[in-house]
Amino acid sequence: MSTASYSNSSGDEPNKKPDAQNEESSHLLEATENGVKYGSRQADQENLLGNMVHTSTENKSKTLPQYVAALAAAGGAFAAGTLLGWTSPAETSIVDGSANYDFDVSTEQFSWVGAFMTLGAACVCIPIGFLINQIGRKWTMLLLVLPFIVGWAMLIWAQNVVMMYVARFILGIAGGAFCVTAPMYTGEIAQKDIRGTLGSFFQLMITIGILFVYGLGAGLNVFWLSIICGLIPIVFGVIFFFMPESPTYLVSKGRSESAVQSIQWLRGKEYDYAPELEELHQTDREIREQRVNIWAALTRPVTIKAMSISLGLMFFQQVSGINAVIFYSEGIFEAAKTGIDSSLSTILIGVMQVVATLASTIVVDKLGRRLLLLASGIVMALSTTAIGVYFFLKDQDENSVANLGWLPVASLCIFIIMFSIGYGPVPWLMMGELFATDIKGFAGSIAGTTNWVLAFIITKTFKNLTEGLGSGPTFWLFSGLTVVGVFFVFFVVPETKGKSLNEIQQELAGNQNASSLQPENNGAKK
Q: Which of 35, 256, 397, 495 is the most exposed place for a label (fewest CB within 10 A)?
């Protein structure tokens, strides 16, 4: 398809300069010599000119603005992280009555204070999918600042336990909605060679938010800790207001001029936006030509496959035992007689999560998603097995593990590091990559809902499992499920590293020559 014919179809794109086309063609022809950067097979190199959408150096694309936008979006994840981490430093003072509340809160009641957050997150994920497609990714995230502020205000000045429940439920709505919207936004603004890194910012900022609260909680009372947590969403809103909307969303709404401005903001003024914009239009045209209702879109074979992969990753993320390991962390440090204060042990765990997730952001676009998931799953299974052995022996004879205190501590640290490298960030990253544009909001919402429902179930039933099976067998159960997850990743999960979102859809559809369905060669006609 020529540039002229494309401009006529979109209606408002300026004509592409011949010099820019010649320069693009020379760069792309040079790229056909190696083909490595674009993740294309050697047999497909003749189609490169029509397939290079998310390039960087060859097309003078800047990456810094994309990092800025992704980090700004991840500010919402930081706010969600403070929400997740708040219960740990707040529990002791609230339950023992030393917090600034005029009512008593029992241990059981506080467990529901924590659980209502997951219920709120589970309830919002599907409705937010519709809102994302109606008002856009950017304005949806800005709108979420309001429930964050309301939730924290209600929690700070709560008059009774029920008010705390409602506050945490509202905060869960805000945090859960971000878990759907932010990965989708990041996946759509990033060029494919850095999409994995930018997508990992979401989990990284969640862990930083958790660590932030752990650190503040060691020195501040609950009132001031909550005040600071309530200010963070406001700071996020101010910063994110200046970020661009997703070009994918803008094209889907027929706002091509705005999409060009968004792409140029993200890639730079010298970036030749025409090939990328044409692929977005091509994808949008195909979706409109095949437009169906939600149910029909969900039952498409490619959507079923993507949904199976995403739900599978969410399932195995939660049943790996991450919540159980965190729950037992203070007890593990105490049993090992390390002499480390419980508050310092939680800070140490937070530091490990941040460092490991940061490492994941660096290597995810180099090593790939599958390798990180496989390595993560194998080592996590070994770690929970070792923790299970320790607690099993301890339940039989406490003296038998007197010299084995190092075992659960080492296993705990290794587990958290490997989870933060693989199963922590990658399922959320791939959720933003696997689904077609017309179903992405709704399907991503289902995946997010599944994750939060599982988190609620496992958190509330963990105590029952340990009482019924014993601590050791419970950890072995998590280990066995993680092993099943390893096989799931090996046989089912595709590698998405170095592929555009359109290429991923073609591969899920079973078309190995993904480029054959891309827009026609832009460089063929001048």
A: 397
Closest C-alpha to 186, from 302, 56, 72: 72
Nearest to 361 by CA among 176, 202, 184, 179: 202
From 233, 260, 176, select the one nearest 452 (Cα to Cα).
Answer: 176
Residue length of the chain: 526
* 324 within 8 A of 412, measured Cβ to Cβ: no
Alpha-carbon gap, residue 348 to 106, rounded angstroms:
27
Whole-number pLDDT of residue 339: 67
Contact 181, 133 (CB under 8 A): no
81 closest CA partner among 200, 197, 178, 185: 178
**For the ranges 29-33, 100-104, 193-197, 365-369, which has the lowest average pLDDT?**
29-33
Instruction: Sort 467 into a burial class: Cβ within 10 Å, 0-12 / 13-18 / 19+.
Output: exposed
Do 456 and 118 form a contact (C-beta atoms < 8 A)? yes
DSSP code of residue 49:
G
Report pTM.
Answer: 0.73
Copy the structure tokens of residue 362: 């660096």
Task: Assign 291 a pLDDT band (cuts: 50, 70, 90).
Answer: low
Contact 247, 259 (CB under 8 A): yes
CA 81 to chain centroid: 12
On the CB side of 153, CA atoms within 13 Å amount to: 8
Tell me the longest C-alpha to C-alpha distance in the chain.
Answer: 81
* CA–CA distance, 372 with 426 (Å, rounded to integer): 8
Mean pLDDT of the chain: 80
Query: Lowest-confidence range among 177-181, 214-218, 406-410, 512-516?
Result: 512-516
- DSSP code string of 122-189: HHHHHHHHHHHHHH-HHHHHHHTHHHHHHHHHHHHT-SSHHHHHHHHHHHHHHHHHHHHHHHHHHHHH
Q: Per-residue pLDDT for 30 more than 60?
A: no
Distance CA 477, CA 481 (A): 6
Q: Which residues contact 244 (CB under 8 A, 6 or more apart)?
A: 69, 138, 189, 261, 262, 265, 266
| Nearest CA-CA partner of 224 in 169, 292, 277, 152 | 152
